[in-house]
Amino acid sequence: MTLRTDDLFACALNDAQAICGADEAGRGPLAGAVYAAAVMLGEPIEGLNDSKKLSAKTRERLSAEIKTKARAWCIASASVEEIDELNILQASLLAMTRAVEGLSEHADWVWVDGNHFPKLLVQKGYAGRALIGGDAIEPAISAASILAKVARDADCDRLDALYPQYGFAQHKGYPTAVHLAALRAHGVCPEHRRTYAPVRKILESKTETKSEAKSEAKSEAKSEAKSEAKSEAKSEAKLEAKLETTAETTAETTAETTAQFTC
Q1: In what order do the strands lie in the sheet with 109-113?
Q2: What is the reported pTM?
Q3: Which residue ranges make up the annotated binding site for a divalent metal cation?
Q4: Which residue numbers belong to the known binding site?
Q5: Of 1, 30, 143, 183, which is most buried with the most CB atoms under 10 A?
Q6: Residue 69 exposed, middle or buried by CB count within 10 Å (0-12, 13-18, 19+)
Q7: pLDDT tens digit sequence for 79-137
Q8: What is the dihedral angle through the alpha carbons of 78, 80, 85, 91, rounded to the nearest 10 degrees?
Q9: In sequence order, what are the residues at sequence separation of 6 or more whose Cβ sits closer than 8 angstroms to the Cβ of residue 170?
């Protein structure tokens, strides 16, 4: 009998002794790395849920508890440069792959939040599945979402210290009115994701402004050159006229003097 794909997955899951959950944090922000975590739970932890449904204080408390009680855990990230190079989806999957691979124990089964299971994990021989809404229903994914979120928020606090004019500690890099206003006022910093539309528009606007400034400067330079040339031509004409007048006057004076001597 040939087993269906679903049956094969069920068998793999039933045989799994080490199950981990993986999730990411930070796909929507305009700045900073995207973070991911993988967690292999041990003893039960009360209060696990989708990190977005928990307060910052609760996330901090649970993060510490997860790190203490989990069988294994790992936090990883994909940089701003990788996000711009690969796109945010692929960078998120890369970060999750790094987190799973970074576990101190090999996972027999990997639950990934969302609808994309990293191809890199498949290529490396990991079994698992993507689970839509998994961060609210699978405890291991919930734990991973909490670790990833807390780690990313901490990184935003670090960015806030480096670039206080943007308010990263307040909006965590998301495109809030405050963040967009700061972008318009201060331009783009090295931690902004250049492929994201609001950031790209600022960069394009800056490029256009520079181009216009160059064009204006070039036009002004041409105008000044023309004006100088015209002024110089006038001066030369005046000088020539003056020289001609002087020459005529000199000739007349010489003629008069010669006439006097002749008389």
Answers
A1: 72-78, 34-40, 19-25, 109-113, 128-131
A2: 0.76
A3: 23-24, 113
A4: 23-24, 113
A5: 143
A6: middle
A7: 999 999 999 999 999 999 999 999 999 999 999 999 999 999 999 999 999 999 999 99
A8: 30
A9: 160, 176, 178
